[in-house]
Amino acid sequence: MGCSAADVASAVRAMATVVAQHRDELVDLDRAIGDGDHGENLKRGFEFVVSALDSTEVDSPAAVLKLVAKTLISKVGGASGPLFGTAFLRAATGLEEVDGPSVAAALRAALDGVVARGKAEVGDKTMIDALRPAVEAAEAVRDKSVAEVLAAAAGAAEAGAESTIPLVARKGRASYLGDRSAGHLDPGARSTALLLRSLADSAGAS
Amino acid sequence: MTVGLVIVSHSVRLAEGVAELAGQMAPDVTIRAAGGMEDGALGTDFDRVLTALERADSGDGAVLLYDLGSARMIADLAVESHGNPLNAVVVDAPVVEGAVAAAVAAQGGGDLAAVVRAAGERPPEFGEQAPPAAGETVELVLRNEVGLHARPAALLVRTIASLKADVTVCHNGQQADARSVLALMGLSARGGDTIKVVADGPDAAEALRRIGKLVEIEFEE
């Protein structure tokens, strides 16, 4: 992944492909502890994102991310719309060039936005369990390349997602299940890790 | 104009039902239902909520009530995108009770802060006792069948909304602020029951007169 708007747009398209490939897995995860719509909502949301990229001129990486945010907020009916939308929107703010430190800062801004929107913290069995360790890992290697920063974030997000399995959910639809939510991977943490891994792969491939 | 309401729900029918119920008590208040997705599926639709908010806010502000988690996030996002974010408030309250209480407060001419307060208030817990009310007192026998149910309670609140008086309704050892629909309903006063109304302040006598009249005409039922 280079630094141009086109590079970021193609990384977003790659995320859409990954989400589509993992739709059924996310649906199954969400059926276990939620309402079962996460995989389909996110897949449809990213389909709208791809159409928006096809039909809109975007001239900067930040503009690409803002378009993603706006589309997810408008088109995804579940919690993932406002949460991922807020993450992309905050990541876009202040992202002028794409280098290691700015990517780490964008991830931090995304995390802060999601925390403010969803009021969740680490241990609540949500996407924050993947996103916060990802941000901390990215910041630890912020002076390296974009690919290395994103690879560190993706690895930490995957470990963070796995850590949700024994947890009892305290936020979102899964929290209504109480103790029965333990023993399942949180779908939002899983999709967060998938998206970060996809970004890292795009960055590493260029 | 009055403060407006937006009901944000995952379900088209739930939002419309809550708006219908609250609207029955507040004929002059703009209550917009923003439920479901554009195609009618379950979910919360940002564009629908933002449009509803813009229509509900006539300039006096709007209160948004929501059903479940992500509806709150969409409501927050709509407020942030509203032309005047300070004129819209998302209230964390049970959506049905909150909407009814907010609608009645708005109908009575309450400003945005008053409507927010009304929406978010909780009826007193059973057994909780405020100090006994003091002032001019009348005892009234409720003649309408349902007693101080939702619509009669809303009428009572509205009939004294403009008066300067602290008014308390007592029933069966409990008492309720007569400006709170939820508190009045919490008294569970039914047809045939006797209530004691206590009023204090410059308009106390007028408040008692109006409430007495309302009871006499059986709350227009």
Uncertain segments of chain A of ≥5 residues (pLDDT<50)? none
The CATH homologous superfamily of chain A: DhaL domain
Which geometry of chain B do the CA atoms define?
elongated
Helix/strand structural class of chain B: alpha/beta
Distance between the termini of chain B: 27 Å
Q: Ranges of chain B with pLDDT <50 over ≥5 residues?
A: none
CATH architecture label name of the largest domain in chain B? 3-Layer(aba) Sandwich
What percent of the residues of chain B sit in helical stretches (DSSP H or I)?
A: 25-40%
CATH class of the largest domain in chain B: Alpha Beta
- Overall strand count of chain A: 0
Instruction: Please give the count of helices of chain A.
Output: 9
Count of DSSP strands of chain B: 8
Counting helices, strands and paired strands, the structural category of chain A is mainly alpha
Return the average pLDDT of chain A rounded to an integer: 94
- Name of the CATH superfamily of the largest domain in chain B: Phosphotransferase system, mannose-type IIA component
Percentage of residues assigned to helices of chain A: 55-70%
Count every helix of chain B, treating DSSP H or I runs of 4 or more residues as helices.
8
The proportion of residues in beta strands of chain B is 15-25%
